[in-house]
Amino acid sequence: MEVTAYGAALDVTGSCYLINTGSNRLLVDCGMFQGSKRIERKNYIPRSIDPHNIDAVILTHGHLDHCGRLPLLVKAGYTKPIFMTEATADIAELILKDSAHIQEEETARDNQHRALFDMPPLQPLYTSEDVAKTCQLFYPIAYNHWKEVAPGLKFQLVEAGHILGSACVEMVVNQYGSKRHLVFSGDLGQWDVPIVRDPATITSADTIFMESTYGDREHDSYDLTLKEFEDLITDAIEKEMKIIIPTFAVARAQQILYQLARMIRTKVIKSIPIYLDSPMAIAATKIQSKHLKDMDDEAKGLEQSGQLAKDLSCLKLCQTSDESKSLNFVTQPCVILAGAGMCNAGRIMHHLLNNLENPKALVIIVGFQARGSVGRLLVEGAPEVKIFGETVHVHATIKNLQGFSAHGDQNDLLRWLKPMIKNKPRIFLTHGETNAISELAFKIEKEFEFKAEIPRYGETIQI
Ligand SMILES: [Zn+2]
What CATH class does 2-217+406-462 carry? Predict the structure, then answer.
């Protein structure tokens, strides 16, 4: 049998593996390439993947870089099931709908411009209709239940601890007289982080495809990050500041709300207005409450008893843009959570425009900021930034917290790998930039005394 990586090979986006057993063909993930225009040009289904000839797709989790090319696959003729956990089905639907909406809007804007020069209109990569057709193929399954896809070919999804519903794929192929046990890590989370459960321990495999996003880094400890977060919020409330937190809608917004709730519950802070200014984060928070059984015990208990809702009685949801704009006139101390998390689009841009010049504003950056984003400039201490073409002088306090990552660091990755090492599996490192992958490969060799392999885009590996 053979496996080919059609994305996230020496790169962090576009996750997609084609598994060809000789009798059957499967995809694990079919994600979107994200970043520069050059990278985004890879957003197509390669000719070597025949959508009519794929027996099943398995999705590890709902992030766009893992599910974002699924509508292209369906548009090209794929009609079989797309397996995933129940929570992932809801998250992937939310994320794909948003992605189609953004592409439709961007294309409409580009076409207005093209019309001025008599250029033919462009089509969006995919539309909301394509996404609706894709979601009809979603086939949610429970964690830890083997599912047979074809004779001699089965898989199960186990907890990856990355975001709600995230899974690693264990696949057993028993065809043509030989047995293979493959593991695809998907994205792996950290241990001992609230809401999501810890990554499951997988004890055997002969072939492992594992992510390396933070293969070269150690995060600040989660507890240390929490302490810093607590100190910042307490201090800002004392000084009657407006606290602005750019946040990703899925997972990060819920983590931050969870921590604010804890601080209110334990009386570290008094109850102040908290505004969740993001329709997508509001939807993601509702999805989380729907999937209690996939949360860790503490979060489940707090949700079930109604304690979390009680702690967050000061939470106000801003669905409409008028509700969002009304926050400009709030003068008392408050917390505003808004997207996009990287400060490159969305309602957060208006809050930054209105508050960066205010010395009584605190901006807490809690996520990765891509090069070129306003968030990155703020983290790097820029004295002024451009927002909607306007130069804005930064008088607000800017703080950056690194430890809230949904990805495990180098230690977490090695911890996940260790129980599988005894059988000397072949390890393929994917989903990481060159440095992160090389550093992780070096660590694996040092710690376990054998070499990990690094596949390239489109390279077919014989297993
Ligand atoms: Zn992810």
Answer: alpha beta
